[in-house]
Amino acid sequence: MTIKFCGAAREVTGSCHLLTLDNGFTILLDCGLYQGRSALLKDFNENWLFDPAAINCMVLSHAHIDHSGRIPKLVKDGFSGTIYSTHATRELANIMLLDSAGIQERDAQFDNKKAVKQGKKPLAEPLYTDEDVRAAVKLFASYNYEHWFHIHENVQVRFTDAGHILGSASVTLKITEGEKTTLLGFTADIGRPNRPILNDPQPMPECDILLCESTYGDRLHEEAPEETARFLKIVEKTCVEKRGKLIIPAFSVGRTQEIVYILDKLVEAKKLPPIPVYVDSPLAVDATQVFINHPECFDGDLHEYMLKDPNPFGFQNLTFIRDTEGSKKLNASDEPCIIISSSGMANAGRVKHHLANNIENWRTTVLIVGYASPDSPAGILRSGGKLLRLFGEVKKVNCEIEIMDSFSAHGDYKEMLQFIDNQKDKLKKLFLVHGDFDTQITFKKFLNENGFPRIEIPELGEEVELTEERFKTTPQYFVLKGDDSKDNQVEQGE
Description:
The protein is of the alpha/beta class. Helices cover 30% and strands 22% of the residues. The chain has 14 helices and 24 strands. It has helices at residues 65-68, 71-76, 87-117, 130-137, 224-241, 255-268, 282-293, 300-305, 324-332, 351-358, 377-382, 413-420, 437-449, 468-472; strands at 2-7, 16-20, 26-29, 57-59, 82-86, 140-143, 149-152, 155-161, 169-177, 180-186, 209-213, 245-249, 277-280, 318-321, 337-341, 365-368, 387-390, 393-396, 400-403, 429-433, 455-456, 463-465, 476-479, 489-492. The strands form five sheets. A seven-stranded mixed beta sheet has the order 6-5-4-3-2-1-22. Helix 13 links the parallel strand 20 (429-433) and strand 21 (455-456). The radius of gyration is 22 Å and the shape is globular.
């Protein structure tokens, strides 16, 4: 049995891992879109490290685009197997992939218009279209949590609630080859305990091999009480004291609903000032309805709250905007307000327009509420960038930037350790994926100190044969002091 790391290897986006059994049966774990501008990965989304037509089936952990976003292209390029997911993931993936297809088509149109203006031939084509999405959705088969089901006569799969977004799952595969049975686990994105809306992450079965995410492997999040108080303070300072706009780039699925729910509770407690709140994202409108359709994913606190407020995603002064004209009116308005708009990394969607129109205004505050790749607009703002290129124009960042990672749906290093703590006794090998390399180095050290001795950090395209001999060895990784660029990263085997 081998595993090939085809995405989110020493990177945070583009999750994709290919498992090949000894009998040749192939299983793809996730098929995500790379979201960033790295020169090293500029062709990632267009190309494959395998033949899509040769893949037998796929298991999708959750609907976030960095885990699902290349599925339509996979189907377009020849994949015809079954895509296994939870029920909520299947429903969310449908609307999210259609939204992604629209972005691909608009990006191609923009590039072609630009080429024509420059006297060049318009050659840009979308990665995929809505027709490709419809073809992909037909291949989905969905299952409940905590239920073993067969994807091959020798392979069973079980989804466990990962508490990350609605329908998110960690994946366990029970693989029988000859007389040997191996349990291979894929944490995918690990959620956080005691967060609003969703159930806490549930422990996976004990595994022999584990692929573990590492997004926040070098940081801790704020606690919930401090989070709400700080959030309210930012709202009051921006919208009441400065009479400005609070712009929150937020993913349409998960983050948006969580922020709306927190605002709903502040309204219920009569703590939120009477200011307009706009959710400016057609996808967020649709996603919120999917949330309402799946109360089985809600935690006990939300069920209890719904006894006094049957609609936790709606309150006075909240407006969901679907049409383009409504979005444009927000840019023309000077009223103090909160605008929640996608995408979370601000590299696509309507939030780019809100930034372009407001980022040079000192009254504006941009609140970053989660991970953003360093080269995305939100990532540049996170790092203190003073200039931002939007729609071909360079804008000065005169607004205030606030960062609240506590809203993140990813567990921090202590929460991830807590999630995988039950794996210590049985685990033979742990692979760190879905994390920046320097973060993974830090997280590996932390895990080593907490009872996980055999950890590897695979490179993009690396193929590993899962043998007993491999389980006994562990490469060590170093970043040369004074330069953390990839060219100066070295790997040393023990």
